[in-house]
Design brief:
The protein is mostly helical. Helix content is 60%, strand content 0%. The two termini are 27 Å apart.
Length: 187
């Protein structure tokens, strides 16, 4: 890793996880396989910031700990990349095992439970689907009816005032790191 840490992907440990490595990696991993409009790829880091914001709007009881969990929901992708669901399915259960091991190490590193509770995971997934709807309609070329069919119809109050703005990776990396640090300070 750029931090100098050696991360064993098959046996990751929390001491080898650094937020700077996560933020850097996620800022350079493109969602939608890079097939989006604009001058910059829409990164997993930017997506994660949006999911955390949506989660906070959807669940008024959100705490810094649950918001941090939402922000880190795709953190393993900093080293394993973002694969579309059909590819994940084709790779098989080994992908999920690798993802779970990395997520556990990341969570422990930042003081979260190794495994996300099922209810919280489902809530974050709902925010993730709203984010996917926004991404699909704003930058990935989907029509609203297409996005509605694939991701559901989002509550207009939840997305009010939010828009996707593609930015350089360095900006997104800084914002991601800052947001993690803010949430950690509030724990």
């Amino acid at each position: 890793m750029l931090s100098g840490r050696r991360l064993d992907l098959l046996d990751p440990t929390p001491v080898d996880i650094e937020i700077e490595d996560i933020a850097h990696g996620l800022a350079f991993v493109a969602r939608w396989n890079g097939q989006t409009h604009g001058d910059f790829a829409y990164s997993v880091a930017e997506h994660s910031l949006l999911v955390e914001e949506l989660y906070g709007r959807m669940y008024k009881s959100a705490t810094p700990k649950t918001r941090l969990t939402a922000l880190l929901h795709d953190a393993p992708e900093y080293v394993i990349g973002d694969m579309i669901s059909p590819v994940k399915a084709a790779v098989g259960p080994e992908y999920e095992t690798l993802d779970d091991r990395l997520m556990a190490a990341i969570h422990i590193r930042f003081g979260l439970p190794a495994e996300t509770p099922k209810r919280l995971k489902a809530q974050i997934k709902k925010a993730d689907k709203v984010s996917a709807w926004m991404e699909a309609t704003q930058i990935a070329g989907f029509s609203v009816p297409e996005a509605n069919k694939l991701f559901g119809i989002p509550d207009p109050k939840i997305i009010d005032g939010l828009s996707i703005r593609l930015r350089p990776p360095v900006e997104v990396r800084t914002d991601y790191t800052t947001r993690v640090e803010t949430l950690l300070a509030a724990l």
